[in-house]
Design a protein that fits this description.
Distance between the termini: 13 Å
Shape: globular
CATH topology: Rossmann fold
Largest sheet: 5 strands, parallel
Strand order of the largest sheet: 2-3-1-4-8
Helix content: 40-55%
Bound molecules: BIS(adenosine)-5'-pentaphosphate
CATH class: Alpha Beta
CATH architecture: 3-Layer(aba) Sandwich
Number of strands: 8
Number of helices: 8
CATH superfamily: P-loop containing nucleotide triphosphate hydrolases
Structural class: alpha/beta
Order of helices and strands: EHEHHHEHEHEEEHEH
Length: about 210
Amino acid sequence: MQPQLIFLGAPGSGKGTQATRLIKECGYQHLSTGDLLRKEVKEASELGKRVTAIMNAGKLVDDNTVLELLKKNTDLASGAYIFDGFPRNGDQAKLLDEVVLKGSNSKAVYFEIDLDLLFDRLVNRRTCGKCGEIYNLKFKAPAQAGVCDKCGSTELNQRKDDVAETVKHRLDVFKETIEPVLKHYESEGRLVRLDASNGSDEVFSSLKSLI
Ligand code: AP5
């Protein structure tokens, strides 16, 4: 069986973009805690109402809330996953091993990139509200402005946390929390590093050769 993949990296480093490509080619399932949380917010569930302000401010939601959501949406018997956005800190890294992976074969991929490159990527990101395709007004614009290439929807949205002030805060949170996560996987020989600063095609080729 393919190893379970854990995508680590700063906001905007390309985790979601590469996960989408890998799923198409290699049949993985994508489990993004950010997407799961945004769905709760959109549906205005009790959980969604509780986390809206936290997410809009670019802060992390508490570990237990995210873990419960992750558990509810994971069934390892159904095949290999790409875990995207979890873990965010050392405690979450331990929880993922103990509560979800439970000894399954897994590999963590760290999307390594100079954080100065990420501001432009994030404030220019647009996501199709219908099919989830990810665009960038600067680096990957849709062929026709405002229209999704993939499904034709005109609902290309900017995420609430992709505004300048919040982006800065998200990058600070990342800097403060990533080291214990990297150590967790590195100490067990489960970490591979991916140069995420190149164009999307080049990053995808490197990713495939690493996994
Ligand atoms: P989440 O949704 O996980 O967001 P994030 O980690 O901030 O990551 P992003 O989705 O912003 O970045 P990405 O790496 O996927 O970039 P993408 O591929 O889209 O989390 C959001 C919030 O939810 C958190 O702030 C927190 O509140 C909460 N949360 C989630 N998980 C949590 C947890 N475990 N614990 C607690 N709270 C949690 O690319 C970005 C842009 O760049 C796109 O426009 C794309 O087109 C472009 N791009 C991608 N690759 C390239 C390239 N190679 N060259 C040029 N442009 C590129």
